[in-house]
Amino acid sequence: MNLNLFATVNLFAPDIYVQALPDILENSNTNIFGIVRVTDKDKGVHGQIKSLDIVDGDPDGHFRIKPTDRPGEYVIEVHRLLDRETAPAGYNLTLRAVDRGVPPKQSYIVTPVRLADINDNAPVFNREIYEVSVPETSPPNTPVIRLKVTDRDEGKNAKVFLEIVGGNEGGEFRVNPETGMLYTAVPLDAELKAFYTLTVSAIDQGNPGTRKQSSAKVKINVQDTNDNDPIFETANLTIYVDENEPAGTSVT
Fold it and tell me: Taking every annotated instance into account, which residue ranges of this chain make up the domain Cadherin (predicted)?
């Protein structure tokens, strides 16, 4: 009697296919980022999938793998709200699939996750109050101070325009809306006004209805210079002095 025994071996590692969204809007209620299908070209138990896991790229547990009702199909779920400012580069999820072969074989795939920005951050001045002095002899368009503003968002949500919204009723100063440089706009006169407190607003260029704003104070001291000649109270003055008065006698 001849017996032909065929023993199967685990020849192939699983194949992983990921169909995912191009990006996820941060702080959104997105539940499923992608669908993963895992197959194995082996037969029998060697071709069965034991597990699919995220093994790298998600240290804080923002994602999780969940099997569906279909064999070899899984979904990548968003488990926690995502913040683009915390992870500006997004995530690179390393998935590992393991089959039930003996010995088991495993394979890996890296799935990038890009986070799309929403306008959830207001512009921030590097100071709440700026203090600066400028000589009253400064001509118009003299640079006074540069106001620095940052915004943690990206794209147009991070583009900031500045505007003087208070304390500049006479139009003595102007600000470049993009660079934040503050300039004198007219000749200043410390004898007329020696101190200004400007309110400068910064507003981002997000979509209407989502724009965010912040403000800062700029205190400007106009320094007096010797720009006025002495003036007699009267143009002509007649003084009478008795003769023989000693030196040092007051005559007025």
Answer: 24-125, 126-232
Q: Which helix (H) or strand (E) holds 216?
A: strand 213-223
Same domain as 130, residue 110: no
Instruction: Report the number of distinct structural domains present in the chain.
Output: 2
What's the token pair of residue 58? 């998600």
- End-to-end Cα, the chain, rounded Å: 150
Higher pLDDT, 231 or 92: 92
Q: What is the CATH number of the domain that holds 101?
A: 2.60.40.60
**Domain boundary at 71, 97, 116, which?**
116
99 and 134 housed in the same domain: no
Measure the CA angle with vertex 223, ends 217 and 227; round to 5°.
145
Does the residue 243 lie in any domain? no
List the domain range (segments joined by +) for residue 193.
124-223
pTM here is: 0.74
Sequence-distant contacts of 42-46: CB under 8 A, at least 24 apart: 42/8, 42/10, 42/11, 42/12, 42/99, 42/101, 43/8, 44/8, 45/100, 45/101, 45/102, 46/8, 46/9, 46/10, 46/11, 46/12, 46/99, 46/100, 46/101, 46/102
Give the count of beta carbons closer than 10 Å to the beta carbon of residue 73.
15
Which tokens go with 127? 């100071």
| 56: confidence class by pLDDT, cuts 50, 70, 90 | very high
Residue 97 near residue 49 (C-beta atoms within 8 A)? yes
Rg (CA), the chain: 38
Given 116, 147, 168, the domain boundary residue is 116
